Each structure stands twice: as structure tokens, then as C-alpha cells.
Amino acid sequence: MPKVAVTTESAAPKEDVRTLNEKPKVKAALQKECGWPMEPKCPVICIPTGMTKELGGKLFEQLLPGLLSLDVEILILGKGSSSYGSFITGLAEEQNHRIAIIPNKPAAIEKMFKASDMALFLSDAEAPELQECLHSGTIPIGPKTKAVTDYNPVQESGNAFLYKKDDVWQCFAAIVRALETYVFPFDWKTIQKHCLES
């Protein structure tokens, strides 16, 4: 195994290595901005597509109790319908120790991707945001699609954690599977490299 790890590291482009090395620093800086403890090891999930009925708002509401039971921090891009805007604003105020709304501005969005460990797609994993997600080494969790490949721990292949669309139980299971993998740094970095390579 060590031999394979050295080969993978040496083969990775310098900019990819830099992207992964800088992620904990960017995460800690964003946590500080949000008023959270600066804990780079705490998993951060972003929801990068905004929130509307079409973008998975109903699934998010169904998922929320399970999501709040997990030890994660959540970044939600501040765009979408007014009804969900009010809902998310109230949620962020209530859970301000671990949920923050990210302004819908290019610099803030870029920082969100660079700081996040995972990106949760609730309706369409082929959204334009997917490319920026992969480019930042942020691992997608989303509905099954040909755009990314489900992670296989036996073969150490894949660059995402996928679930059946609109299935709240499978979605939650995919999030848990991602979090369980996150605690193994070598495996997680392998998936991140697969994201960057794609």
C-alpha cells in the first residue's frame, strides 16, 4: 500500500496537491467568519445550488431531522425562492452554531467550494456547480448520474456518493457513507484526487 500511495502523490499535478493542502486553511478561515470553532477536521457540507421546490426543497425538509442529528457543519448558498429563503434564514438563525448562508457572489461561492469537504446535490448532480465542486476537491453527494461515479471502497474507485433521486433514505445513507469514509484520511484523499482528475 505505501508504494501505491507514493506513486499517486508523485503523479498528481502540483496545482491539485496545492488545492488539497490549502483546503484545511480555507475551511478554518471560513469557520472563523461564521463564528464557529476553527476545526479543520470537522466535516463541512455545502448545498451549492440554492433552494427551490425544483431544486430539492421538499427532499431537504424531509432530510433535515436526520441531517441535524449528524456532527456536521452546513453551508447553504443564498439563492432560490422567497419561501425557502425565509425557511433557510430561520433555520440558520436557530442553528447558527453550524448552519450558515453563503452570499450568492462569485468570491463567496469560490470560498465555499474550497472550504467544503462535500457538496450535497438534492435534485440534479449534473448541475453546472458540479464542475466547480470537482475542481475544488469537494466530493459530491447526489442523485445517480453518469457525470460522476459512485465510490467503491473495495476497488478504491469513484468520485462521489450517489443515491436514488428523491429517495430521502438513500440520500441520508449516502451522506452517512460519505461521513464514515471521511474519517479515513487516505481513502478520502484518494476520492478527492479522483474528483480533481475528472
Topology:
Layout lengths: L1 H10 L2 H21 L9 E4 L9 H12 L4 E5 L4 H13 L4 E4 L3 H10 L2 E3 L8 H7 L3 E5 L17 E3 L4 H15 L2 H13 L1
Parallel strand pairs: 1-2, 1-4, 2-3, 4-5, 5-6
Describe the structure.
The chain has one domain: Glycogen Phosphorylase B (Rossmann fold, 3-Layer(aba) Sandwich), CATH 3.40.50.2000. Strands 3-2-1-4-5-6 form a 6-stranded parallel β-sheet, with helices on both faces. It is α/β, with parallel strands linked by helices and 198 residues long.
What descriptive keywords fit this protein?
51% helix; Rossmann fold; alpha/beta; 198 residues; six-stranded parallel sheet; single chain
Task: Please outline what is shown here.
By secondary structure, the protein is of the alpha/beta class. The protein has one domain (23-121, 129-137, 156-197): Glycogen Phosphorylase B (Rossmann fold, 3-Layer(aba) Sandwich). It has helices at residues 2-11, 14-34, 57-68, 82-94, 106-115, 129-135, 168-182, 185-197; strands at 44-47, 73-77, 99-102, 118-120, 139-143, 161-163.
